[in-house]
Write a structure and sequence with these properties.
The structure holds two protein chains of two kinds.
Chain A lengths: L9 H63 L2 H9 L5 E10 L2 E10 L17 H97 L1
Antiparallel strand pairs in A: 1-2
Chain B lengths: L2 E6 L1 H4 L8 E4 L3 H13 L2 E7 H6 L1 H5 L8 E5 L8 H14 L4 H9 L1
Parallel strand pairs in B: 1-2, 1-3, 3-4
Classes of the chains: A mainly alpha, B alpha/beta.
Chain lengths: 225, 111
Amino acid sequence: MAATHVNPTRMELTRLKKKLVTAMRGHRLLKDKRDELMRQYLDLVRLNRSLREKVEEGIRSANQNFVLARAGMPDEEVNVALMAPKQEVSLEVSQRNVMSVEVPVFQYQTRTSDPNDIYSYGFAFTSGDLDDAVKSLADLLPDMLKLAEVEKSCRLMAAEIEKTRRRVNALEHIMIPDLQENIKYITMKLDENERSTQIRLMKVKDMMLEEAHHYKEKAEEAFAG
Amino acid sequence: MYKIAVLGDRDSIYGFASLGLDVCPAEDLTEAAGKLKRLAEEDYAVIYVTEAVFEGLASEISRYESQQIPAVIPIPGVSGNTGIGMLNVKKTVEQAVGSDIIFNSENERSR
């Protein structure tokens, strides 16, 4: 596994050990982050789904109402009736931090507080179906905004979860095993060096003793002779 | 202060004008692409697009995916629901979890 060459030195060993500790801690933190993000994401995505079902159903029935309204009155009159809207919706966007993911929070305000201002026309020349159609859409607006908020949050969180998951996997399956391998390699190399030094010393000692013994033997011989 | 826009074919979206949302009717995809770009550059926080436009401009819309605003949200048009909105939710689940656990389990339960 250790494809890159590492210097078998004590300095390198200390460095790698420190790196391993950091990697392990980072891995644990990222794993916690991923799990918590996932938990919140799953709640959110369920909400996303139910909201979407509701909104799609609502728009479908609103469209039906509009078709009905258009059938009841000429096209031009529908256009004229809806041409100059009275109401205006503006959004206040704030941010919420979910596990370091900044997700938007929408707060909407209508220009006028009168709920009847959605009818931008006089009632004399329009059919009642148009009122129904407009009302059904207006009722849907809060849910549509909630859907926008939730769906955007879901997408942002999904991207973040994917990123975090990749990081966790990279740490778990590549970084940490690599570091452990390298540390093992260095430890073994250092041990090996130490053993060879030890042996060398013992050999040298033997040789020196041998030399010393010869002298003694010779001295004894000379003494006896 | 941000605004909300609705983009799509005229028949699908004209009703939203009465609520005070800004409607941008577009006849074809090239026109829609230009309008989407313009809307995204202005201060629109939410852009609702009809499913047909969402499908046709998938690559343009994916550019805004990673930004906080605008949120580009598909809504069914007058021609009916193609299910692409749900499919999109499904895709994010797959992206996050690796496999689709929300909708799959639902299918199995109904079986």
